[in-house]
Design brief:
It is a multi-pass membrane protein. The protein has 2 domains: about 1-60, no CATH class; about 70-289, MetI-like fold, CATH 1.10.3720. The chain is about 75% helix and about 5% strand. The chain is built from 15 helices and 2 strands. The protein is globular and about 75 Å long.
């Protein structure tokens, strides 16, 4: 009898948990799971819209081969954008970390400054951000104001990185607009570090530079990883992403194939970034030991 009651109690707990997650589960299946599976299905078919129905003709890997081996359009858009992402990710992370450390100081009006740095996250949606840049508000004019263009030409020459570097500098204000969430996460992470750790370091005679590398960076490591993942995903869904614009130019089957290839590129890039981060983190721990 007691065993039966325990089974009934366990069943009721499982049922309650299932009911709690049911709205999310149904939403995931309807709005994300089904579209993903359907887009994968369409990537292997030629889709035609008829007056009364949609026609699907199986073409196998035709679109995948066409994108990867039959044309350079995908690579012409992906490689320059990939170079911009490689530049912007560390810039955004370093900028966000430094601003979070400054905003954690006990200065007058710090709550106002925190709000100012987070405001772009609220206002600069994809459409609003696009309009800002189209109206010329996305550039701080670094290259023209300080005549950096000639120095970059002399330093980078005909390198394939010349154009991405200039694009990032010309749109450097985007770093400010895309750092709000990262600043908030770093700020929360900085506040988890005990003040006694810094007091002990100062008593031992550690310099601010040593405190930063020996205490702040190791303690912020989980938050750096979180911001790294968030920034990578955020950059690959950038409003000015040329690949996303390219996805809307073909037919349904071609677009679906291109979307899945791009998804795999993001997964591979994110895996590579996480592998590099884990190696650097492991080496840092070994050097401290």
């Amino acid at each position: 009898m007691g065993k039966k009651k325990r089974l009934n109690a366990r069943f009721m707990r499982n049922l309650e948990g299932t009911l709690f997650i049911a709205p999310w589960l149904i939403g995931f299946i309807v709005f994300l799971g089904f579209p993903l599976v359907f887009s994968l299905y369409m990537s292997f078919h030629s889709v035609k819209i008829l007056p009364t129905r949609m026609s699907y003709e199986f073409v196998g890997l035709k679109y995948y081969r066409e994108i990867l081996f039959g044309s350079s359009a995908f690579y012409d858009e992906l490689i320059p954008f990939f170079q911009e992402v490689v530049i912007m990710i560390p810039v955004i992370l370093i900028f966000s970390l430094l601003i979070a450390i400054l905003l954690n100081q006990k200065l007058r009006g710090r709550f106002l400054f925190r709000g100012i740095f987070f405001l772009p996250v609220i206002f600069t949606t994809g459409y609003v951000l696009t309009e800002f840049v189209n109206q010329g508000e996305g550039s701080l004019g670094f290259l023209e104001r300080f005549a950096l263009g000639s120095y970059l030409d002399a330093f980078l020459g005909d390198s394939s990185w010349a154009k991405p570097v200039k694009e990032v500098l010309n749109r450097f204000v985007l770093v400010l607009w895309y750092s709000g969430v990262q600043i908030l996460i770093f700020l929360a992470g900085r506040q988890t570090i005990s003040a006694s750790a810094y007091e002990s370091a100062r008593i031992d005679g550690a310099s601010p530079w040593e405190v930063f590398w020996k205490i702040t960076i190791p303690a912020m490591s989980p938050f750096i990883l979180l911001n790294l993942i968030y920034t990578v995903v955020d950059m690959f869904t950038f409003p000015f992403n040329p690949i996303i614009s390219l996805i809307g130019k073909g037919n349904y089957g071609y677009n679906s194939s291109l979307a899945w290839i791009y998804f795999l590129v993001i997964i591979i890039f994110l895996s590579l970034v996480l592998w590099i981060y884990s190696r650097l983190n492991r080496n840092q721990r070994a050097s401290r030991a």
